[in-house]
Amino acid sequence: MYDAMLRLTHTAMPGKLQKTLPIKNLPLIHQILPVFVLTAFAVLASFLWQGHKGFNLWDEGYLWYGAQRVLLGEVPLRDFVSYDPGRYYWSAALMSLWGDSGIMALRGAVAVFQAIGLFTGLLLIAQKSPLRFKFPGFLYLLLSAITLMVWMYPRHKLFDISLSILLVGVLSFLVQHPARLRYFVCGLCIGLVAIFGRNHGVYGAVGSAGVMGWLAIKPDSRKDQPGFGEGLLLWAAGVVAGFTPLLAMMLLVPGFASAFWESIRFLFEVKATNLPLPVPWPWKVSLDSIPSEEAIRGVLIGVLFIGILSFSLVGIAWILFQKFYNKAVSPVLVASVFLGLPYAHYAYSRADVGHLAQSIFPLLIGCLVLLAAQPAKIKWPFAVALCTMSLWVMHAFHPGWQCHASQCKAIEISGNHLMVSPEVESDVRLLRKLAKEYAPDGGSFVVTPFWPGAYPLLNTKSPMWGIYALFPRNEDFQQEEIKRIAAASPGFVLIYDLPLDGREELRFRNTHPLIYRYIIEHFDRVFDSPNPVYQIYTGKKLAE
């Protein structure tokens, strides 16, 4: 990745400077150090601005619960429903190092992973901007950092965002010099990525297949490049090596293998990787019925949904054309367009802003790398436009801006002082009131199907394996959950009776009818709930 840049930088430097600055010092001074400094500043500034703002009982609570349970010796997938294990062990390792299992410790662990992703992305972009401590190269890098940072949302999904960036870097590494060792290293990295998220492993595999196929077209005989078959075998060997930690868990951790395969089988049972939402096409925005700022945001979001797909389709066609005519193509662009298609699938699987943000980084990095090589009259207007569009779309979703735009309330969570919306403050107060009255001293309770964050908030284990009960489950699964609830004797049950996405079939009573019936038959309803969608039940002996 850096050899070509060193040559370009060295030849572009004045003779006097070449004599005073040895070429061997360039990697530290003119490549890694500026990017590292900018990355550290950007992530730290974001953390100081909004690290203590906002709290999400839903998805962030889902991650927090898993990290806490791993700290206590439980195993993801086996002991509780979860993402793939990597992110939990990463978070638990850093939280253990810091001696803190609270929400801010979790956010700190996630921010470290965010920094790795941002550093990789900026390093890829910086290859086109030598002498980056000087204007305007550093200014372009700063503009790129703002563009990337504003899309790093939501906070609890920064693992997924960083993984997508790392995949771009890994495939760029292969394209730049497709030697045998790099095929193996590429596979190794994809295997490691899959431990954090199997979907990212699949996306990396699809992108790798495209890259290896592209490399097989008119291969450069002057390079140590294996044929397609040999390269595929080396890559596959790397994947197996990278996936070894999870394979070891299957062999050594009792019950984990069956839980892992069951999680894969369940995807085929529900025939979906996510709960779909309609694509917000730009022409569907009601321009007359909403404020102009929201209307513009809606149109831009729709345009970007089109853009992430168009970028890959047009980009693949273009790099194939270049390849057939033996024309040079940026390795980062090749990696970006081949990864763009599988990540477009992720965006369209649940077409909201959060999933768009987790899928857009191949497009962003590809565009910023392309623009970095253009003349100033093209480079700067388009880069500024991309940054402005990103800020317009995303600023309103960040908790720091939300607390700036509306009144947030101070609250203490896990020993940390946070600023949260009035709605979240009210929900936390309700949970604490119910726990104090019906499940004191760390007693058991059930909160379902949403709000898995209730358990780490109150430092309690969930009686149910399914802490986030979104998808319909069969009778056998529900019977096992009922046994767990009965054994725990929860002091209260809170059912968030919401038709998710407006779909009645996704109410808890319809996705888990046996569990719902068990609760209404064995617990008494409390009718002074502060919100009609919060169905609160207590044990009969407590309610009498």
UniProtKB/TrEMBL annotation:
UniProt keyword DNA-binding present: no
Membrane-spanning segments: 28-49, 104-126, 133-152, 158-174, 181-197, 203-220, 232-257, 295-321, 328-348, 354-373, 380-401
Domain of life: Bacteria
Signal peptide: none
Isomerase found in the keyword field: no
Keywords, in A-Z order: Membrane, Transmembrane, Transmembrane helix
Protein name: Glycosyltransferase RgtA/B/C/D-like domain-containing protein
Organism: Nitrosospira multiformis
